[in-house]
Specification:
The structure is a homotetramer. The first copy, chain A, is an all-alpha fold. In chain A, 81% of the residues lie in helices and 0% in strands. The mean pLDDT of chain A is 83.
């Protein structure tokens, strides 16, 4: 927890108190929810087109509120390194900076999507949600190997699928990219037989081997990926408890007491 | 367990015995099953229309039986606070009260649905089912954060989807509500590619990015939601056992005995 | 394990040895596999029609082999009660008895299905498979409550669905039976939106509430049913190990030794 | 780990050092990735046809690089038995040998698929991926029984399905092979109702019994197969830790110390 050090100016510690206060968080959260409501209302046909000026003004104001907020949080840190050591601060900074950069541009859609993504700032503002997302993201690196294996399997099946079915089913296997997308659809088991395999089988009867092989291998690997996450989580849950470690610590203490007892008795004997 | 206290009238304790007896539960269960059979028979075409009078009479009788039952259970409690402290009593009370309130009304469908919902009273009457549903409902609050995160993700993707595909696929992304329904369909992986993504891709080739991103993020979060429930359940199952705690208790007792032994030996030495 | 008792005739114990021998099991397994091959070959168009006499003869021979086998296993038991105490023996007996009963009948399809079901005898003959199926079936009673709850939910949604959509979608909700079948399809998430909900929504826009509610409730309960099975299995796996109990047993022995030591020392003191 | 023994020629130990070095692995990995890129580029229409000579040359060169690599790894082993004791070496050997064998042949598709399969050599080269795939493959034998049961269930339902629906739905149940493929589709829950069951139900209303029975039995067995894998994995995860065994080892040591103490005290008493 940052504390006011001697060399620090007084305004910095005061600013920190404000920034870390509950009411500050609640105000920002309210602004984010207002932002969310605005982008929601904008989607209704006619509403955005007829009030473009109003929505532009609201967006300007919201963007500046967020800019001031982030500037305050930045200034409250001891150094800029502390601020940028957190991925969440990077997210907040980039989403607001992008708003300023694209402000003058004519890429209206990009600007509107940026405005919607600001709703995700709710996660960076609510600590319990931030911890949850951090925990979810932390499970990904431990899955590195299985994701790599998944990638290799997708690539091999993608190339073979393109080679074999390019002409029979150009809408599913026309190019390597399309094949990879189709394989992603197949691994979610969505219409893999009725829409993808059966029409191809009418021309190439042996194509079922390709699809059955991929469904078996793909779902098996995806399933093991899921198991990895489960075992990971169960272990983590176990770690936080670890009653066995406590047992072992107690056992070690018990043993040292018995040793003491023995030393005492041997010493007694020596004396005699 | 409620016991007859001194200030309580005798009829109250007698009523409580009746209400808590097995045969009372069985009678009510039989009435509920009769109610279930009646609402089932009503669905066959012509049956309800041709015997509206009969079904109305049966319904009146059933409603009054339930009313008397709940009145008895209410009277058997020490105070009305005790009765309404249980969510199941609220459910029973509201389902019967609503039957009386809408009785005169002409909203035939509402009345009939109420009659069907009374079948769910079987759960409130069978204790083992009541405990099961209580247990299922108790897992929900612990999932609060992940449900909130899910909501934010749905909202962001919903607004972006409406913005991008409103004109290309009005039946799926015409309004924000429709988009959210479509996203719910996508997260269950139902026809997400064959019916939703592929027709849109014919006009907007880049739309696969939106859908693949949502399928990955959505299923990952839903899956973690499920893991949350599993870990929750496994932990609960562990709690009921906790052999480690027993081990530690035994270890503590062992240590105190060894200490006693030591104190005795040191005392012996002192004496000498 | 059955052992030859004094009052038992010699042929019985000899028969038992034969029946329990490995080569007997292997011969029966070979006959079952031959039976499986025959019923498989029969499915090819023309094969059955052109060789009905041959297949009938083969079937007669196979049926009598099985009859003799079961008669031998029956005779090898001490009493007929021992034989019928096993569900597998009942299965074997019924499948062969039905073969004889329907032999003269003209229900050709029933007879052929019986012949196919005999393939399942492979499970009753291979001990490891029999244990596996026994274990799978044993998980069902522990799920009694959740299956009952599932049934109540299906019934309530079935009746309401029939009431609401009977006229809009007669092919899905025409009768209560059809509704229950449709709900089973919805709970497997198969085409629940594209084929069932969306066509109904075109007439009754509010019907999404019914389907989303059922998908949420249904999958939640099915998922908890699955968790029940998992927790059940994990606990069983834990029971077979139970290293904690071993730890506690060792701890108890340790303590008794320390007590002995103490008694000895106190006794020494007394002597002095 | 192989170490240079006295009788071994010097070049063998030097070769081993090269083969086991990191840079050797990285070079081979780079060649594999180049191979992967080439087979990917080949899939684009026209690219392969217009540069067949170039791709043939590249393929020749890649094939010889892999041949030399495997020859080096073979020569670095103490004996050819050591080399072929690893399944991965067999895979590497066969994939390269097949490349030479089919080189002159005109089965262009077979040759191209072989070239794509070489990408899977990335797994055999990266140790962490090799271990992961080894672990995945090791879970299969423990599932032997449940896979056998699955096979029996598929066969029985396949034969019955062919018998019953051969004429009603020849595209799904025309032959036994087609029925088994359809059952595989049904067990993945893909369009099982909308495409397979409902069209058949229009002619044979009772066919829902067959499909509902198979969905229930099939998904129940598949689900238990998955549970087997999970329990397997969780147990393995537990084995690697096993704090209980450590506890028990410590307890045994503690007890032997207490015994020593007792022996000492009894000996003291004897002396007196």
């Amino acid at each position: 927890m940052p504390t006011s050090t001697r060399n620090e100016p007084v305004w910095k510690s005061r600013l920190r108190k404000i920034v870390q206060s509950n009411w500050f968080t609640w105000i920002i959260l309210a602004v984010i929810m207002f932002n969310a409501a605005v982008v929601g209302i904008e989607t209704y046909p006619g509403v955005y087109e007829n009030n473009q000026g109003l929505f532009l003004t609201i967006d300007r104001v919201l963007l500046w509120i967020f800019t001031v907020e982030i500037a305050m949080r930045f200034a409250a840190e001891k150094s800029w390194k502390d601020f940028f050591s957190s991925g969440w601060n990077w997210f907040d900074f980039l989403i607001v900076a992008a708003g300023h950069i694209f402000a003058g541009a004519h890429f209206v859609t990009v600007l509107r999507i940026l405005r919607v993504l600001r709703v995700f700032r709710a996660v960076s503002v609510i600590p319990s949600l931030r911890r949850l997302v951090d925990a979810l993201l932390l499970t990904i690196p431990s899955l590195g190997n299985i994701l790599l294996l998944m990638g290799i399997i997708f690539y091999i099946f993608g190339v073979i699928g393109t080679m074999l079915f390019q002409e029979t089913a150009p809408e599913y296997f026309g190019t390597l990219e399309l094949s990879l997308l189709t394989l992603f659809q197949v691994v979610t088991l969505e219409s893999w037989a009725s829409q993808v395999m059966r029409p191809i089988m009418e021309e190439l009867w042996w194509s079922w081997m390709y699809f059955v092989a991929f469904v078996l291998v793909g779902t098996f690997v995806v399933f093991n990926l899921f198991i990895g996450v489960i075992v990971n989580n169960v272990e983590k849950a176990d770690d936080s408890e670890s009653p066995e470690e406590e047992t072992q610590r107690e056992l070690r203490e018990l043993r040292s007491e018995i040793r003491e007892l023995k030393d005492f008795l041997y010493a007694e004997k020596e004396k005699k």
